[in-house]
Automatic annotation (TrEMBL):
Gene source species: Sagittula stellata (strain ATCC 700073 / DSM 11524 / E-37)
Protein name: 5-deoxy-glucuronate isomerase
């Protein structure tokens, strides 16, 4: 399913043969470039969308904005690939002041305040355990996907919960796939900025048996292609889908749909997000850049 040059090709040997029964779920799609924001303030707009386990808040910033959490149940992530964005983050387990962008932060449970300043895009990722954030989403109610098991948080971090900052200025290495970070609740892969459209002769159709992939586009134009398995009940069959979206946008690719993505413009940036973290990525040596901070879950490799 993967081109020979794709580092994920090695994962196919770990996959198990599966048979699926429907009914199946379609994707959740938010083309933020064409849709009104859910929240606005002086100098910022925010779009919010959910999937089964995650809430994504994408903030377009032209000034300053502050977002606070009180009694947050679990860790969440905040990141920006824009170096000119500045962060002030306050928590009971660490603070940063006037911190540059192009970083990813893991914010501990409890009370926290995140202030962002400058011009650019800032992404906040929470679990759907925060019911107040789910209610703010453009799609607060979604169909339950029977292929996704109940959410299980991964083990607590080494040394306990605290504010952590990770530099996104990480050079590419042969055999490593993107820039992957995980915490107890989620995994983010900030893929490299692609300087040209994707070669349509080297796409990567594949499926996930039991988890969603959230594709967050930050720059450029993208096309997602989806195809579902045929079952013995033709009433469960779904037509192929072709989703076109500009940036910014979110597309939730559901299991067990076969999917692949084209980037069709110059200078594109996409981020893949999973909740909980992926075990197959986590067991590849060197792929998760902050693996020393977060122990593996005790679970079967899918």
């Amino acid at each position: 399913m993967f081109d020979d040059s794709d580092p994920r090709k090695a994962l196919t040997s770990m996959a198990k043969e599966r048979s699926f029964s429907g009914p199946f779920c379609g994707p959740e799609v938010g083309d933020f470039s064409q849709e009104p924001p859910q929240l606005t303030g002086d100098g910022w707009q925010a779009w919010m969308m959910r999937c089964t386990n995650l809430v994504v808040r994408l903030v377009r910033l032209e000034g300053a904005a502050t977002f606070a959490r009180r009694g947050q149940l679990d860790e969440y992530m905040v990141f920006s690939t824009d170096a000119d964005v500045r962060f002030d983050i306050e928590t009971a387990k660490g603070t940063v002041s006037d911190h540059p962008g192009n970083h990813l932060f893991v914010v501990p449970p409890g009370d926290s305040t995140v202030t962002v300043r400058g011009t650019g895009l800032v992404s906040f990722l929470y679990t759907t355990r925060s019911a107040d954030l789910v209610a703010q989403c453009a799609n607060p109610e979604i169909p339950a996907n029977p292929n996704i098991p109940p959410f299980q948080q991964w083990p607590d971090p080494e040394g306990g919960f605290r504010l952590r900052a990770y530099d996104l200025d990480v050079p590419e290495e042969p055999g490593r796939f993107g820039r992957i970070f995980r915490c107890t609740t989620m995994m983010v892969n900030v893929l490299p900025r692609f300087p040209a459209p994707r070669d349509a002769a080297k796409v990567s159709p594949h499926y996930h048996a039991s988890f969603e992939q959230v594709s967050l586009t930050l720059e450029g134009d993208f096309e997602h292609f989806l195809r579902w398995p045929w079952t013995s009940d033709m009433a469960e069959w779904l037509p192929d889908m072709h989703v076109r979206c500009a940036s910014p946008s979110v597309t939730v690719l559901p299991p067990p749909a076969i999917h692949t993505t084209l980037w069709t413009s110059e200078a594109t940036q996409i981020v893949d997000i999973f909740s909980p973290p992926r075990m197959d990525f986590s067991t590849k040596d060197g792929w998760v850049l902050n693996a020393a901070d977060y122990p593996l879950a005790r679970t079967e490799i899918e």
